Amino acid sequence: MSIWGKITGAAAGFLFGGGPVGAVLGAAAGHVLFDQEEEPDARNPGVAFTIAIIGLSAKMAKADGVVSDDEIAAFERIFQVPPAERANVHRMFNLARQDVAGYESYAGQIARMFRGNPAMLEDILDGLFEIAKADGFLHPGEEKFLETVSEIFGFAPGEFRRIRASHFGQVASDPYAILGLSYEAREDEIKHTYRMLVRENHPDKLIARGVPEEFIRVATDKLAAINGAYEKIKKEQGFN
After folding, report:
1. 3 falls in which pLDDT band (50, 70, 90)?
2. Domain count of the chain?
3. Residues contacting residue 131 through CB under 8 Å, at least 6 positions apart
4. From the CB of residue 5, how many other CB atoms can be counted at a distance below 10 Å?
5. Which residue, of 38, 68, 109, 227, has the fewest CB within 10 Å?
6. Which one, of 1, 13, 9, lies nearest residue 38 by Cα?
């Protein structure tokens, strides 16, 4: 069953409880947000992941100072929202976008939900980067937004630069930045880091930790960037 068929106002409200995210979802309670074919499992990490992406992408839509529907259109395109569910996604997106709570509050609640699961938090950042770059330009406001969310999620500045490099900007052509390595790194460290990143970003690994299949294309693109960076470094340093 598609992830879109598992999300309801009740399930989401139970999942997030109080706090800003729960308050917005509570405003949507009283009607089913998504068509139901079976009872939703509010403990499903894929449900939490999807709601986190919707909520934070809605907040990011305001980061460049221009509120438009471009960001939600990018979300629908990147994350394969079925036509029948787009009105429901719009509803959740607009509720979060109009909420007076700051994005820092949203990010803090999501960070607490996924405490001890940094890989899932990185998956959320990956999704947000994909939405941010949909127009081919990373606005300074969006970059500041993403950097602050990354910090709230517990990532060090170097980890943020690595995540950013696999998605966007001139630094994306720097293989050392993509792998999060210093220019002094040598073969053993490079191979160890590469294998770790491949293991954590392999689509099968993401599915195993609960990322919905609809979002896996993002991971596939990131894995391609990691593999490309490794091949460049191997060629440069002359090891197999």
Report:
1. confident
2. 1
3. 57, 60, 71, 74, 75, 78
4. 16
5. 38
6. 1
